[in-house]
Amino acid sequence: MTSTIILKTDSKLKQKAQQTAQELGLTLTSVINGYLSDFVQTKKVTFQSKTNSKKNFDPYGIFAGAEITEADIDSITKSWMKKIDEIG
Q: What torsion do the CA atoms of 37, 7, 56, 68 make, to the nearest 10 degrees?
């Protein structure tokens, strides 16, 4: 069974991605499905972008528009520290 995902992206980026996939003998759908499978298996986001270099890196950028408070961040940090203490 398949499902459809609708997403918005820059039209030039989509065109370049389709061209790159075609050059590799792939479809854009197969590339995206590969990334999704990897994401599910590893539970990690593994991509790099030239625009996300260290000089342009904003550690809070992933939270843009989200309603995350300092208390939320503190809670997450404390839970991570607890896990680290349990492991180490």
A: -90
CA distances from 50 to 46, 55, 57, 66 (A): 14, 11, 11, 25
pTM over 0.70: no
**What does 13-51 look like in DSSP terms, one character per residue?**
HHHHHHHHHHHTT--HHHHHHHHHHHHHHH-------GG
- Cβ neighbours of residue 25 under 8 Å, at least 6 residues apart? none
Angle at 54 between CA 48 and CA 12, to 5 degrees: 45
pLDDT band at 49; cut points 50, 70, 90? low
pLDDT at 51 over 60: no
How do the domains of the chain map onto residue ranges?
11-87
